[in-house]
């Protein structure tokens, strides 16, 4: 390519770096059976670190029941799906997984996509197209795949203030009762660690004749007697029209899905280009997700262990005076509120303490709300948590001093 084009790319990257928004990848080697310990391939050679920011919340991605199911499926059915669902990709493990998901959420049917992102983007844009003159009501804190699905659909939309049901009702009431409406929100908001007011939103949906679409990607496997998410825990799954989830978080594998009525799933299956023209997930992934979900429907040990560790970490951090956002979920946001300082702290934690936490900066969160997002799991020990708090104290103190000196220099 000519230098003219290279200059454009270089300028865009320089801008990110100047704003401390450039994303640096840390090469981590996860080793089966040793989670949350992993191998960091550092510039000066590999060393062991403890991972504190994994979305494999329960360690299911390394559990024998999951890896054995995946290995067996690959050995007996091959590595790939062989094509899109309509060509040759409707494999038996995938069909069984859809049945399991429908049963888990108390729905007639489920539909699997290659990722949670694609599930949201394809399902939302397809629903908007099919519903015609629909108005979409979206929580202000909804994440990127929801925003992308709405934007790509070119839907008429209204954004309601985060978890503000009074504002949502004000917006709903401004529309004709017979106009199609779609309310999209999340059960667990993954950056703040708070939860959506599911019951109140369902009440408004029934009052104003709206469909409800809930994103449970950070809740499936984590909440409810069988891991069906926050809606299951609160006994509200039957009041939600579309439940969207992911296999890439607590389930420990990869992929996404929706669970809903037979008609709605069939309509998305038949009209959604993001589903129709994408190679199906391989049998190994489907078998692994199926084994993980079946295990978590019977075992609460992982959820209970994870909840105990979250409570301990929040308690110790609060006692030490850290700015921890309030919330009743497994996500522990420790506020830094400065992008350069956030990056410096995470680098110091990794280099000096062998603790791996990625900085969360804009545009993932708003400017001025930069943070560390910590996700303790059931396999972290009490001593690991105590050591983490001590490492955070040291890194915050050292980096804050250095950051202050560099800003006044």
Report the helical percentage.
Answer: 40-55%
Largest sheet: 7 strands, mixed
Portion of residues in beta strands equals 15-25%
What is the overall pLDDT average?
A: 95
Poorly predicted residue ranges: none
Name the strands of the widest sheet in spatial order: 4-10-9-8-7-5-6
Structural class of the helix and strand makeup? Answer: alpha/beta
Number of strands: 14
In brief:
The chain contains 15 helices and 14 strands. The protein is α/β, with parallel strands linked by helices and 409 residues long. The mean pLDDT is 95.
Provide the descriptors you would attach to this structure in a database record.
16% strand; single chain; alpha/beta; 409 residues; 14 strands; 15 helices; four-stranded mixed beta sheet
Describe the structure.
The mean pLDDT is 95. This protein has 409 residues and is an alpha/beta fold. The two termini are 40 Å apart. The longest helix has 27 residues, at 382-408. The protein has helices spanning 3-18, 64-77, 85-89, 92-105, 116-131, 144-153, 165-173, 198-207, 230-233, 262-271, 273-276, 283-298, 301-319, 339-353, 382-408; strands at 28-30, 37-42, 45-51, 109-113, 135-139, 156-160, 181-186, 210-215, 242-246, 256-260, 332-335, 355-356, 359-360, 371-374.
